[in-house]
Amino acid sequence: MSDKDWDEHWNKSNIISDYHLIYYSFLKKLSKELPKNSKVLEAGCGSGRGMACFFGHKVYGIDISDKALELSKKYGTVRMGNVVNIPFKDNMFDLTYNSGVIEHLDNPRKAINEMTRVTKPNGLIVIIVPNKCCLFYQIYKTLFWGIQETPYSFFRFKNEFNEFKIKSFFGMHAFIPLASSKTEFLPKKIREKIVKLDKILPFKKYYAYAIGVIIKK
Question: Residue 70: what are its φ and ψ, rounded to 5°?
Fold first, then answer.
């Protein structure tokens, strides 16, 4: 996708989707587990709402979209940059993360290596992608998501990280798509209660809407 396509996407994205309700809850929990004043980088910061989850930390973001940077700058320090060539020095961040980024790339391994490069020794790298095996993801993509991407099965995703030190793989499951970033079928307060069911589901990494990994450098 071109920078212009991403500008258009972020210009129209003003609703928090079901998946992002779960995702932001995950980031807030991660924020509480980090030492105070940790340096955090979202490598593909989009709307900046993910950056906003890291209270009490030094938060940075990069993106290729001018519109994304405009939206994100109120949450931290942002600059133009591509995840396959991150414009920061080695060993700078305690946490480097993104969601919904590497599935758009021709060379996802280069992005993974760059995220690892800028993370401090013993720091964390978190990467989350859509799950090819999730029925609800396929419904959402068909109905709402016009951006080209290549989702992962869990086993393909796992194979990307064979040489890394893995803390855990996990899944995040949005049930029936009740809201996209552009369309909302139920109010946010109701959806927040529904998505809490995600916490009780077992073996989510195999069938969840999104799958992720936490790597320790």
Answer: -60, -40
Q: What is the CA radius of gyration of the chain?
A: 16
Q: Which long-range contacts (CB under 8 A, 24 or more apart) does 143-152 make?
A: 143/177, 143/180, 144/177, 144/180, 144/181, 144/182, 144/183, 145/180, 147/1, 147/5, 147/9, 147/104, 148/1, 148/104, 149/100, 149/103, 149/104, 150/103, 150/104, 151/103, 152/103, 152/211
Q: Structural domain tally of the chain?
A: 1
Judge whether residue 211 has pLDDT over 60.
yes
Please provide the DSSP assignment of 165-207 as one string.
Answer: -EEEEEEE---S--B-SS-BSS-HHHHHHHHGGGGG-SSGGGT
The mean pLDDT of the chain is 87
Reported confidence tier of residue 163, pLDDT bands at 50, 70, 90: very high
Q: Are 44 and 98 in contact (CB under 8 A)?
A: yes
| CA torsion through residues 180, 185, 188, 189, sign | negative
Q: Which domain holds residue 49?
A: 3-216
Give 57's Cβ-side CA count (13 Å radius). 26
The Cα–Cα gap between 166 and 58 comes to: 25
**CATH number of the domain residue 47 falls in:** 3.40.50.150
Q: In DSSP terms, which residues pair with 60 in a beta bridge?
A: 41, 77
pTM for the model stands at 0.88
